[in-house]
Write a structure and sequence with these properties.
ribonucleoprotein, Acyl_CoA_acyltransferase, single chain, Aminopeptidase, about 160 residues, acyltransferase activity, transferring groups other than amino-acyl groups, Ribosomal protein S18 acetylase RimI, disordered N terminus, alpha+beta
């Protein structure tokens, strides 16, 4: 699934006025950079396999500043026919600077007019707060995916309230 190779440039991220943040579809040349960026991939071969699949499916969107990857997101349409943010990862040294919110905003713009869902573990307060900040609303939970850590589902409406 591709959105026509969209590139979006933001001039201001978290108070950094001259920062150019670009979004593009990841390609196989980005695989190593994304694996290094992903805090889970170093210890988990299955995550590295997933990153390769997401790239090959055209579902992986990379955020970069001056050619350096700051984060990535995976957008699929496998959740009951609706768009679903399957993964959002910001590199450790880029966290807390607005890159995650910028990635979410980019995905929201790409899905304008369509339902958009995401989920995160109950233990992941940072992601929950990020989703709420971006205007997502709690939509339920799923038990038994991870032991003693329910998956919270969030929803962003096709046409958000003004």
């Amino acid at each position: 699934m591709r959105f026509g190779g969209v590139v979006r440039v933001l001039r201001s991220v978290s108070g950094l006025p001259s920062l150019d943040l670009r979004f593009r579809h990841a390609n196989p040349d980005d695989f190593v950079a994304l694996c290094l960026l992903d805090t889970f991939a170093a210890e988990h071969p299955k995550r590295r396999e997933a990153i390769a699949i997401w790239i090959n499916e055209g579902a992986c969107i990379i955020a970069e500043v001056n050619g350096e990857a700051t984060g990535y997101a995976v957008l699929t349409k496998h959740f009951f026919g609706a768009f679903f943010i399957e993964m959002l990862m910001v590199g450790n040294r880029f966290r807390g600077r607005g890159f995650g919110l910028a990635l979410l905003r980019h995905l929201q713009a790409q899905c304008a007019g369509s339902k958009l869902f995401s989920s995160t573990n109950m233990s992941n307060r940072t992601m929950q707060n990020l989703l709420l900040k971006a205007g997502f609303k709690p939509s339920g939970y799923i038990d038994n995916l991870d032991v003693n850590d329910p998956e919270l589902v969030f929803f962003y409406p096709a046409y958000p309230d003004p």
